[in-house]
Amino acid sequence: MKHSVPRGDTYVWMTGGFLALCVIMITGMLLLIVVQGIGYFRPRPIDQFALQGDAEAETILGQVYSREDIPGDVAMTLGYDPAARPVRYLVRVGNRELFAQDFRWVNGPDVGMVTRPANAVCLERVEYGNAYGFVHSLRLGANRVIDSEIDAWDVFQKIHETLRGLLEQIKAREKDELGELNYQFEQHRLEVKALEYRLANGRIDSASYETRKTEIVAAMANLEQSLRLHQAALDSMRRIAREPVLVLRALGSSGEDLVDIPVASIVRAYKPNSMTATATLRFYASKVWEFLSDDPREANAEGGVFPAIFGTVMMVLLMTMVAVPFGVLAALYLREYTSGGAMVRIVRIAVNNLAGVPSIVFGMFGLGFFVYFVGGGIDALLYPERLPAPTYGTGGILWASLTLSLLTVPVVIVATEEALAAIPRGIREGSLALGATKWETIRRVVLPSATPGIMTGAILAMARGAGEVAPLMITGVVKLATEMPFDSHFPFFHLDRKFMHLGFHIYDIGFQTSNVEANIGMVYTTTLLLIGIILFLNMAAIMVRARLRERYRTAGF
Prior knowledge:
This protein is α+β, with helices and mostly antiparallel strands.
């Protein structure tokens, strides 16, 4: 020990041991996220519990989400033997038309028999969550009913895809045709407000005001007529979609109940207890595609997260585009143009300390400076006729990105300074000796050589900024925003719009919903997706850094 301590062998082994422990912990965490996240997409079997005991016999149908031992004191209260270690099951019974809650606990000692009926069906709906039961019949209209369970299921599968396609057409027409008409109507309304503002401030005479207003009112009347025609056509399509009704035989607390479920409201229908391997794989693919490409539904607990994916990626790119240039310029000034001194040391200490400031502080600064001061100033200068309704004077993806750029710019400054300091002094002196100016030396020699280090700072900034949530909650992120920050109208990218973020989505579905048990899988899956996006962005930056490093290594730098 006396000889090993001075050489540092003990500390080397300790460092290696702690590093190995950290790697094991991170690997275990990622493995847990992967297993739980992938498990979210699997079709859970439907169990039928026949309850027996002192109470009236009851039959429960649903999917088991977890199993645990009943605590000893609870077991004694319920009259069970704690030594037998009784268990209980958390069952998702769905059918909100019949039950007050989606989940209920089933105590193992009360279960007489558990079966998995092959014909039990699970219906994922646009609203009201899942429905469980058995197909009773199918109504295709006022005078046509299919009573046979097998025939009703076969016909349902055929018409379901047709109705879903009809609903997609309705949704597309609402977004494209009605959306365009509503946009034009809103533009005319804003133009009228602008005319009133200019008239009140003496910038236009009353004759011109009346002439232009008459033209706008006439155009708005034509738009209203077109809106009514399109709305009537859509209403007709919706009536056709609402006609087919699947009658489900559900198991309620009082026995069997027949529940009418419109076929158009069913997103997915399957019988998990009788699915083949091929059907299971198709189910997995369908769920994964829905998760990556669709909008959320059911208070974000179901459906997809595409708006959150887009918002996260766009915010990270905007943040990087702002943080990296400003961070590089600040590092260049501190390293190349200052001669040192107390003031420079104070600035460096301040930059290093900024990395330790809580992120919520940056959020409060972004709210006060960017949203209220800068955004409010833009509204007063460019959109005075729209006030008091704010345009830029409220949270949006632009202000959230600028706030996070302030949060991450110290990382870029430190990494860039280290990269600049690593460039040999002889390279600068050689360039100056050949007649280049200081700026030419920096632009053509120093900056290209430091680019790999700058990319390292960008990678660290993206990794930190993508996972921040607290500043976003007060600068633009919202629970649901299916309207993308871009469209076909000028200026195409609307940076004043609010957006969704995967980090906030995880917080929302994990802590702000009533059915937390049903959302655990979604939490793990969204976490896995966020980690994957961060890794993808980082890997892209790492590949660029590696190519630049190889390029300047072969060039002799």
